[in-house]
Amino acid sequence: MPITLSFKEEFAVLTIDRPEALNALSFSLIRDIGARLDEVARSDARALLVTGAGAKAFCAGADITELMNQPAETHKRGIELGQGVFSSLQSLPIPSVAIINGFAFGGGLELALSCTFRLASANAKVGLPEIKLGLIPGYGGTQRLSRLIGEARAMEMILTGRTVRADEALQMGLVNRLVEGDPVEAGMSFAREFTCHSLASLRHARGAVHRSLQTSLAEGLKIEADLSTLAYQTADAAEGMTAFLEKRKPSFQDR
Known about the structure:
255 residues; alpha/beta; 6-stranded mixed β-sheet; 16% strand
């Protein structure tokens, strides 16, 4: 199966398993990712890890052969498919972590940008090279990259199509950390830093940050106040504050 979904401890692990094609994304693979995300949303997983099979590539981007000689309407439907699936990834009820092992170009980087966090191996190389083909990113790259690293840096990457190495990606805030060893184990180690917390509070915090990027500071503060109040009313908030006063570790129930 080109897309595999497995569960390990409290984690769901989604793997693009097409190493002979550097894990390139076909439209059928994107649909499969969407179906697997639905399974993740229904599961008891506390975080999703996304990686690519093999040591060479996380995902080298779109399958260019599929893009050739399409009517404009067909192309647009493909773009909307990718945008919809990647938006579903971003809006999952649990946080997600992309572990970029090797190349992440075009749609592969856009997939990683849709995750809550990004980790990268030392040999990782990322970029949005669509401009070199006379195209532009279409699965959210022009929108998410600028929100993540700022307009100037995003504009440079998109208009030059240049490749960014792991250390520079870390410096510019494109990835959260550089990791070594097995990608899944590295992702699990990182994710344990937040899966110990209440899923309800994690969801409210992510919602506040995401919604703030779409509005003014004043409106964002109102959103924060509303979500903070919702979090305060949860059983986990009562447990967390009680545990703090009793000097013990809280036992969250995700409600």
